[in-house]
Amino acid sequence: MRELKRIAIATATISVLVMGPLSALAADGDTSRQLTEARQEGSVWTAFALNRHLSPFAIDVDIEHGVATLTGEVESEVERDLAAQVALGVEGVTEVDNQLRVTGEQVQRNTDSDRSFSARFDDATTTATVKSKLLWNRNTEGLDIKVSTRNGVVTLDGQAASSAASELAERLARNTEGVRQVDNNLKVSADAGTADRAKARVDDAGNAISDAWITSKVKSSFLFNSNLDGLDISVDTKDGQVTLSGQVASETEKSLAVETAENIRGVRDVNANSLRVGGVES
Q: Any idea what the Cα angle at residue 62 is, between residues 162 and 121, rounded to 5°?
């Protein structure tokens, strides 16, 4: 069952990154753009990791509005130009701001190069998963949080509007499959403007959030949670009302499932009367 869940998580994560722009809300443009850019960054990162000329170098990628900014160091102009061409080959990337520095043989080598591609891919998947959970949750300003992962250790950087938001972001990351540890470097800022604007967009979008979108995100959130067996929980949504059915192992899991669903954007209410505990009707 654990391996099956791992496969399901990987599949769900790929769907999030590839299909995000198609299933996201037209009224919630920033979220759609963030998910699109996360997919593009992952694609560029994968292309670099698979290229034998570029994989030895620590190259950072940041994509915004189709412009890929490359930073780091390479050994020669050949690698610098190659990196730009590889990035331009990714769908959606229209321009490259190539800030790579050529430092010759003194270049700082990629410390990840001695790790298997599988390990690096797992970390990239974890990063994408945590980012998605923060973006979907109505109580976290995910757009202001930078997420990185190495060997299962997730680091959160950026700003949170309150201590409660910071703690929630850490909890969402900690309860993600594959996460061993969370280093929470979020700084609590008195300026909650970004969070307020994000919340206002969600409130204004209201009816624009489709039931299919909600169902998809609730199901994915269950699969991403290391403390839930999401494969045994069915989700149905009608007019923002989520109904959960199936089976969980304990009352604690049931409460967690309800809380997880309630915190997804667009959810108006959650009915868990048909969600059984230990095979017995609750």
A: 90
Q: Contact, 275 vs 248, CB < 8 A?
A: yes
From the candidate CATH numbers 1.10.150.120, 3.40.50.300, 3.30.1340.30, 2.60.40.1080, the one assigned to the domain spanning 1-109: 3.30.1340.30
d(CA 261, CA 134): 13
Q: How far apart are alpha carbons 231 and 125 in whole angstroms?
A: 19
pLDDT in tens, 27-80: 355 666 777 787 788 788 888 877 878 888 888 888 888 999 999 888 888 889
| DSSP label at residue 241 | E
Residue pointed to by tokens 């540890």: 181
The CATH number assigned to the domain with range 209-277 reads 3.30.1340
DSSP-derived secondary structure letter, 176 = B
Q: How far is CA 81 from CA 106, 109, 246, in A?
A: 19, 18, 54
Reduced to 3 states, what is the DSSP secondary structure of residue 192? Answer: coil
Instruction: Output the pTM of the full model.
Output: 0.62
Q: Where are the alpha helices (DSSP H) in 51-192?
A: 77-88, 117-136, 163-174
pLDDT (tens digit per residue) in 145-180: 888 888 899 999 988 888 888 899 999 999 988 899
Q: Residue 193 has which token pair?
A: 């403007």
